[in-house]
């Protein structure tokens, strides 16, 4: 068959399949991420029906998916919001970092996977899924609750830590000597610092520059700017994702909300492709071997996340029930854990890491919301 | 009037709330998307919302109208009691000669005797804007003047 014909048919089948899975996820009111991962696993190497022709396209689509995920995350925040919530949440946020990075790091070392892979695993267990948690708050009607600003601030803190963590991990993944790694990290932190300060002072002006009454112009300008900055960031080893995140932060006000609604459908498409690609490049035959570790890590990091959330809410003067809600709301892990695991790409042992991360996210993206619903069930609520 | 507390919800929007005399915490969440949520917390559990209503833009306006008593609406209806005085809301459309300049440039009062008493931009209201205030496409001008004067402003600011 013609190459183009094969490409279209294969790609069409994948995207259609994802549509069915997203519908299924909606039916059960859970995140579609686990479904996408399973689809990727099924069609990858060692799966039931390997995809060959469209793999190159899917690989580029996956890169775009990461850029979209981080760009849209940045668009949700303004630099002012980031800096103000950072100040109030810093102590509780740091506790969250220590409590939830440690289990992954320790597990990696105990498994004998080496320090590099262990650092990545720490990132995987640390970061909660903003997407899953935001959906949870909406579905369970928690936005009016007193603890909600605490939950959101913890997420903001985690997202900023991730922005600092990605370039560090990218430097680790490059396998360059310690001197080179330190240099990349310093460059990354300087770039992030300068970009945040600039966005804090001139966010409105940048917004006005790219904003236009025409949707088309706004869409093309914001996306183009994000790609250029992501490319430049990648060139200085700061990681493309962070570049896109900074562009999102820098835009605020009307430009940000317009760009957000315009780019959301593209994000949904390419993020789905990204999860499939991660599944594709993970060998499903590795999963049974890491399943026990994934479950154990899941149990431990549910506990550590609940403690971190509990303490954060307690510091915010929230009563006991609200502290538990905060803790359980943050349990879900998802897109960012996968992004971090995906960065390990070239390292030796990254295959096992990918399998473990996939199994762990499959578990936590489903278990997190279920746990939160369970804590919420005792609450007095009128149905309307 | 009870004091309204404002809390930013990063990624979601802004939450406005106050405590009622009966001990309920009542509030509204303004989502970035324009959607609003009305919630009430009972005195027995002030931390969590017992009732949440999701309202569209239009529904929130309808509810606000039904509740009435907005101080702005009250003063506007008082003004309309003055004979011969007209208050109108005029939008600066794409291509309008007003979109590119300041209120001073438009010389509205000199040419028509009409005053621009406020400019509404998105969710923000700028009361009593000075002549240096720069107008933009999409602004809503609140103008006060005679019926004929307001009509002339409408013609002057039409695109073309």
What does this protein structure show overall?
The complex is a heterodimer of chains A (384) and B (160). Chain A is mostly helical and 384 residues long. Helix content of chain A is 80%, strand content 0%. Chain A has 15 helices and no strands. With 160 residues, chain B is an alpha+beta fold. Chain B has 2 domains: 64 residues; 83 residues, Alpha-Beta Plaits (2-Layer Sandwich), CATH 3.30.70.1450. Chain B has 5 helices and 9 strands, in the order E-E-E-E-E-H-H-E-H-H-E-E-E-H. In chain B, strands 1-2-3-4-5 form a 5-stranded antiparallel sheet. A 4-stranded antiparallel sheet of chain B has the order 6-9-7-8. Chain B starts with a strand and ends with a helix. At the A-B interface, helix 4, helix 6, helix 7, helix 11 and helix 13 of A face strand 1, strand 3, strand 4 and strand 5 of B.
Broad CATH class of the largest domain in chain B: Alpha Beta
Helix content of chain A: over 70%
The total count of helices of chain A amounts to 15
CATH class of chain A: Mainly Alpha
| Straight-line distance between termini of chain B | 47 Å
Q: What is the radius of gyration of chain B computed over CA atoms, rounded to a whole number of angstroms?
A: 20 Å
Tally of contiguous helical segments of chain B: 5
What is the H/E order of chain B?
EEEEEHHEHHEEEH
Distance between the termini of chain A: 56 Å
Counted beta strands of chain B = 9
Mean pLDDT of chain B: 83
CATH fold category name of the largest domain in chain B: Alpha-Beta Plaits
Numbering strands along the chain, what is their spatial order in the largest sheet of chain B? 1-2-3-4-5
| CATH-defined topology of chain A | Na+/H+ antiporter like fold
Helix content of chain B: 10-25%
Q: Which structural class best describes the helix and strand composition of chain A?
A: mainly alpha
CATH A-level architecture of chain A = Up-down Bundle
Return the domain count of chain B.
2
Strand content of chain A: under 5%
């Amino acid at each position: 068959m013609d190459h183009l014909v094969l490409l279209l048919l294969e790609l069409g089948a994948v995207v259609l399949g994802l549509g069915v899975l997203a519908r299924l996820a909606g039916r059960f009111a859970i995140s579609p991420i686990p479904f996408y991962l399973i689809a990727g696993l099924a069609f990858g190497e060692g799966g039931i029906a390997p995809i060959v022709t469209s793999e190159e396209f899917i690989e580029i689509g996956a890169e775009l998916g990461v850029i979209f995920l981080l760009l849209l995350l940045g668009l949700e925040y303004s630099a002012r919001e980031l800096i103000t919530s950072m100040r109030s949440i810093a102590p509780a946020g740091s506790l969250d970092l220590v409590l939830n990075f440690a289990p992954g790091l320790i597990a990696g070392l105990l498994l004998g996977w080496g320090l590099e892979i262990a650092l990545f695993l720490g990132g995987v267990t640390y970061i909660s899924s903003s997407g899953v948690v935001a959906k949870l708050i909406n579905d369970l009607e928690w936005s009016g609750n007193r603890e909600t600003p605490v939950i959101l601030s913890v997420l903001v803190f985690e997202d900023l830590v991730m922005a600092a963590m990605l370039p560090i991990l990218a430097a680790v993944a490059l396998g360059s000597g310690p001197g080179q790694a330190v240099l990349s990290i310093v460059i990354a932190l300087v770039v992030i610092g300068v970009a945040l300060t600039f966005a804090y002072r001139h966010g409105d002006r940048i917004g006005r520059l790219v904003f236009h009454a025409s949707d088309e112009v706004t869409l093309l300008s914001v996306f183009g700017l994000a790609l250029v900055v992501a490319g430049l960031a990648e060139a200085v080893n700061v990681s493309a994702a962070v570049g896109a995140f900074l562009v999102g932060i820098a835009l605020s006000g009307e430009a940000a909300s317009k760009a957000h609604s315009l780019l959301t459908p593209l994000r949904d498409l390419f993020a789905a492709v990204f999860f499939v690609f991660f599944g594709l490049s993970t060998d499903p035959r590795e999963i049974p071997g890491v399943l026990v570790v994934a479950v154990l890590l899941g149990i431990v990091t549910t506990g550590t996340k609940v403690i971190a959330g509990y303490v954060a809410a307690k510091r915010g003067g929230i009563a006991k029930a609200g502290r538990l809600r905060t803790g359980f709301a943050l349990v879900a892990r998802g897109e960012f854990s996968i992004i971090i695991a995906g960065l390990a790409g070239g390292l030796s042992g990254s295959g096992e890491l990918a399998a473990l991360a996939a199994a762990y996210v499959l578990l936590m993206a489903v278990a997190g919301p279920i746990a939160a619903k369970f804590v919420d069930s005792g609450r007095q609520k009128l149905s309307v | 009037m009870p004091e309204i507390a404002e809390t930013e919800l990063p990624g979601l929007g802004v939450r406005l709330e106050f405590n009622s005399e009966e001990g309920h915490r009542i509030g509204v969440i303004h989502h970035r998307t324009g959607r609003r949520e009305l919630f009430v917390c009972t005195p027995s559990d002030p931390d969590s919302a017992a009732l949440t209503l999701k309202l569209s833009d239009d529904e929130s306006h309808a509810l606000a109208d039904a509740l009435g008593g907005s101080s702005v609406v009250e003063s506007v209806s008082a003004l309309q009691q003055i004979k011969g005085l007209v208050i109108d809301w005029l939008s600066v459309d794409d291509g309008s000669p007003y979109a590119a300049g300041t209120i001073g440039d438009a010389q509205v009062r000199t040419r028509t005797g009409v005053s621009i008493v406020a400019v509404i931009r998105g969710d923000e209201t700028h009361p009593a804007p000075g002549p240096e205030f720069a107008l933009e496409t999409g602004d809503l001008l609140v103008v006060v003047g005679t019926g004929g004067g307001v009509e002339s402003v409408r013609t002057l600011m039409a695109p073309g």
